[in-house]
Design goal:
lyase activity (chains A, B), alpha+beta, about 25% strand, PSTPO5379-like, Putative_hydro-lyase (chains A, B), UPF0317 (chains A, B), 2 domains, PSTPO5379-like fold, 7-stranded antiparallel beta sheet, 11 strands, homodimer, about 260 residues, 4-stranded antiparallel beta sheet, D-Glu_cyclase (chains A, B)
C-alpha cells in the first residue's frame, strides 16, 4: 500500500455520499485520486463480462474484481461499501433501467462487482501539464457520446463504444495524447481526434450522457474511450439483473492516480 | 490485421509441429513473431482462471481467449489448431501430470483456451538493441525458476511466481529493462535484477524447467515473470483436467511482436 495523503478526502466524500448529503457527479472531486466505473453482474455472467473487458481493454480496463457476494474493495478502498458509496446507481432489468441512490436492499449473495478505470483519473495529470479540462472548469459532468464503433462481443455482451469528449487547444492535443497514454488502466490515449462525424456523433452540444461543454476557437474535440461502454453492453445483454453507477457518478477510491501510470 | 511477412515461417513451423517432425523448444524460432503460453480449463473454471490472470498481469498477460469448445485462434493465428500446434503438452489431473505431443483425442466441447504472452516475444527486440540472449545463442530452452513469491489467488488458483532468467552485461541491464518494459503484454519489464537468493533461488545452474545457461564475468542475472506460473497454479487447483503447453514449447503465432509494443 502506498501512503495516500488524499485518502481522507476520498473517505470523507464517500461518507457524504453514503449519508445522502452528496448526490452529484464526481468529476473534479478528490484530485489525484483514482475514480472507478462500477459494474455488478450475477456470478453466472461473470466470466463473459470479464472476457468482454479483456477483449475491450480501452473502454473496460479492469482495476479490481471483488469476490462473489463481496461489496468491500480490498485493493482500491478498504472499508468502502460498493452498495452505498456511489452517488447514483442504475439497475438494469430486461424491461428497463431504474435509478437509485443505493442498492443495499437489492444486494444478492451471487453478485460479482467489477471496478473499471475512469478517465476522471487522468484529469489531474492533464491539468498539471497545463492542459485545460473544460467540464472541470465549468463544474459540470463530462459529455459522453455513443459512437458508431462496435466493441468486440463476448457471450451476451456486445454494443457500441461510448466516448468522453474534451475540447483541447490545437497546440496541446499532442501533449494530451502523450500524457493520457501514460495511464492505460484509466482508458489511456485518445481513440479519436477531431471529426466527430466519423464516430457517428451528429451534435457535440447534445451528448448522450453528462453535460454539453463549449468548444472554443482553436480547440479540437478529443475523444477517449469511456467506462459507460459496458452499460450499453448490459442493455443488449438483457440479464435478469445488473447494476452500475450512473454515468459520471463514480466510485472514488483511496488509490492515487499515479499508481496507475505506465512504468 | 497487419501484413506479416514472417507469417509463412510461423505457419511452416506449426505444420512441422503438427506432422511431428519438430518437437523441441521454440526459443529463437520465427524471430519477430509472438509466441504464446497455452492454458486450457473446463468452462466451469474459466471465470476464476481469467480472474487469476487479471490479478497477476505480469506472469499472465492475456492475449486471446477462445470461445468455449473452440480450438482455432481468431486473432493470433487463423487456421491454426490449438490441439496439435504446440510441440509438447502437459495434461494436469488430480493424480499427476502427463506429457503428450497432441491433445486431439482428449479434447472436450466445454474446454476454454487461454493464450498468454511469452517473453520469447521480446527477445528479437533485445537482440536488435545489441543485448545478448544467452539461451538463444546456445540454442537451448530458457532457464525457468519457481520463486518464493506468491501470486494473488483467485478461486482455486494460487501458487508461486515462476520466472525466466537471462544473464545480461551490467552495462546493458538498464537498457534491457527499458526495452522489455515496452512489451507489457509479453511479461514486460524485469521483476528482479541480481540477488537470486532473494527470490528463493538457490542455484542458477539448476533451473526448475528448461536448460541452465552460463553467467559470464560482468553479467547480472535478470528475472522476468514467466507464463509457466499458471502451471504451478494448476498443480494446486487440482481440476478434474487441464492442459498446457510444456515449458518452452510454445504456440508460435502469426502476429508480429511489435504489434504488442506499448504505444
Amino acid at each position: 500500500m502506498i501512503a495516500d495523503k488524499n485518502n481522507r478526502d476520498a473517505r470523507n466524500l464517500r461518507q457524504e455520499i453514503r449519508e445522502g448529503s452528496f448526490r452529484g457527479p464526481t468529476a473534479g472531486l478528490c484530485p489525484g485520486m483514482t475514480q472507478a466505473n462500477v459494474v455488478i453482474v450475477p456470478a453466472s455472467y461473470a466470466f463473459h463480462f470479464l472476457l468482454y473487458c479483456q477483449r475491450n481493454p480501452k473502454p473496460c480496463p479492469v482495476l479490481e474484481v471483488l469476490e462473489e457476494g463481496c461489496y468491500e474493495p480490498k485493493f482500491l478502498a478498504q472499508g468502502a461499501d460498493i452498495r452505498t458509496d456511489c452517488p447514483r446507481y442504475r439497475i438494469f432489468r430486461p424491461d428497463g433501467v431504474e435509478e437509485r441512490y443505493d442498492i443495499v436492499d437489492l444486494w444478492q449473495p451471487d453478485w460479482v462487482t467489477f471496478l473499471l478505470g475512469c478517465s476522471f483519473t487522468f484529469e489531474s495529470a492533464l491539468l498539471e501539464h497545463g492542459i485545460p479540462v473544460r467540464h472541470v472548469e465549468l463544474q459540470r459532468n463530462v459529455p459522453m457520446f455513443i459512437t458508431n464503433r462496435a466493441t468486440e462481443p463476448a457471450g451476451p455482451f456486445r454494443g457500441p463504444l461510448v466516448v468522453t469528449m474534451r475540447p483541447i487547444p490545437a497546440s496541446l492535443v499532442s501533449l494530451a495524447a502523450r500524457v493520457t497514454a501514460a495511464y492505460p488502466r484509466v482508458h489511456g490515449a485518445p481513440i479519436h481526434v477531431g471529426h466527430p462525424e466519423l464516430l457517428g456523433i451528429e451534435d457535440l452540444q447534445r451528448p448522450d450522457f453528462g453535460d454539453p461543454v463549449p468548444i472554443r476557437t482553436g480547440e479540437v474535440p478529443v475523444f477517449w474511450a469511456c467506462g459507460v461502454t459496458p452499460q450499453e453492453a448490459l442493455l443488449s445483454a438483457k440479464l435478469p439483473v445488473a447494476v452500475t453507477h450512473a454515468p459520471g457518478h463514480m466510485f472514488v477510491s483511496d488509490r492515487q492516480d499515479r499508481f496507475f501510470a505506465h512504468l
